[in-house]
Design the sequence.
C-alpha cells in the first residue's frame, strides 16, 4: 500500500493568513493526488484533483502543487469558512489511501 | 445535480453483517465507478472498495475477506455488506462516485454519510 503522510496534523491561523499543508507519499505517485475539505458532521468535499486542478466552484484562494512524492495545499488568504480538516488522498493505485488529516483552527 | 444517499441500520450487533445501500440520483450508475469509504469517530478516512456497473469490484485488502459490494442498475443503487463486525467497524460510512477522467480519478460527490454503531 502507498502510505500518505500529512503535516502538520493541526495548525492555528488567523483570518487572512497564508496556510500551507504538505502531503508526502511513500513512493512516487506522479500527480495522482487529491485534496478534500471536511467540516464537522459533514462529508468531505473535493477541492483539488490531479495535484493542481481546482474543482469547479472552489474559490481560487485554494491551490495545489507538487509531483512525485511531495505535494502542498495552499490557502492564500484564510477565510472564516476555511476552518476545517483537510485530507490528501492518492489515486495512483489501490487501495486508495488518505493522509491522516490536518485540522485548521482559529488562532 | 448528482446526489447520493446512504441508508441502512444504524446499529449492528457484534459478529453480524452490516448492510448499507447507496441510492444515486441525477446520474446513471452505469456511467461510473462507485466507492464506499468509512470514518471512525474522530479519526481519518479509509477506503473500503469500489464497484463498476458491470459488477467488477476492487476491495481494500485490509477488509477484503469480509466485504461484498454489489450493484443494482435497475434501482440505480449499490450496496455494501461487511460481515463479522466488531466495535472497530463503528464508523460513519460514506458512499461516493469514483470519478475517472483523463486517466485521473477522485471521489466526488459524496453522500452525507451514515453512522453505524456496532454494539450488543
Sequence:
Amino acid at each position: 500500500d502507498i502510505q500518505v503522510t500529512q503535516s502538520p496534523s493541526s495548525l492555528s491561523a488567523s483570518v487572512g493568513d497564508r496556510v500551507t499543508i504538505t502531503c508526502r507519499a511513500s513512493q512516487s505517485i506522479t500527480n495522482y493526488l487529491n485534496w478534500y475539505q471536511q467540516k464537522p458532521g459533514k462529508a468531505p468535499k473535493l477541492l483539488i484533483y490531479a495535484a493542481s486542478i481546482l474543482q469547479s466552484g472552489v474559490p481560487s484562494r485554494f491551490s495545489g502543487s507538487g509531483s512525485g512524492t511531495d505535494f502542498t495545499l495552499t490557502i492564500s488568504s484564510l477565510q472564516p469558512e476555511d476552518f476545517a480538516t483537510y485530507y490528501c488522498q492518492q489515486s495512483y493505485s489501490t487501495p486508495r489511501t488518505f493522509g491522516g488529516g490536518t485540522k485548521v483552527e482559529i488562532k | 445535480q448528482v446526489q447520493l444517499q446512504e441508508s441502512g441500520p444504524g446499529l449492528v450487533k457484534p459478529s453480524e453483517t452490516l448492510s448499507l445501500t447507496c441510492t444515486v440520483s441525477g446520474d446513471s450508475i452505469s456511467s461510473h465507478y462507485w466507492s464506499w469509504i468509512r470514518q471512525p469517530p474522530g479519526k481519518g478516512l479509509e477506503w473500503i472498495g469500489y464497484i463498476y456497473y458491470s459488477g467488477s469490484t476492487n476491495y481494500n485488502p485490509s477488509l477484503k475477506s469480509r466485504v461484498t459490494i454489489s450493484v443494482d442498475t435497475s434501482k440505480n443503487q449499490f450496496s455494501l455488506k461487511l460481515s463479522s463486525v466488531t466495535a472497530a467497524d463503528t464508523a460513519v460510512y460514506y458512499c461516493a462516485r469514483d470519478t475517472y477522467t483523463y486517466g485521473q480519478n477522485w471521489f466526488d460527490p459524496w453522500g452525507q454519510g451514515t453512522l453505524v454503531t456496532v454494539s450488543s
About this structure: The first strand of chain B starts at residue 3 and ends at 7. Chain B touches chain A at residues 35, 44-47, 58, 60-62, 94, 102, 104-113 (CB under 8 Å). Chain B has a mean pLDDT of 96.
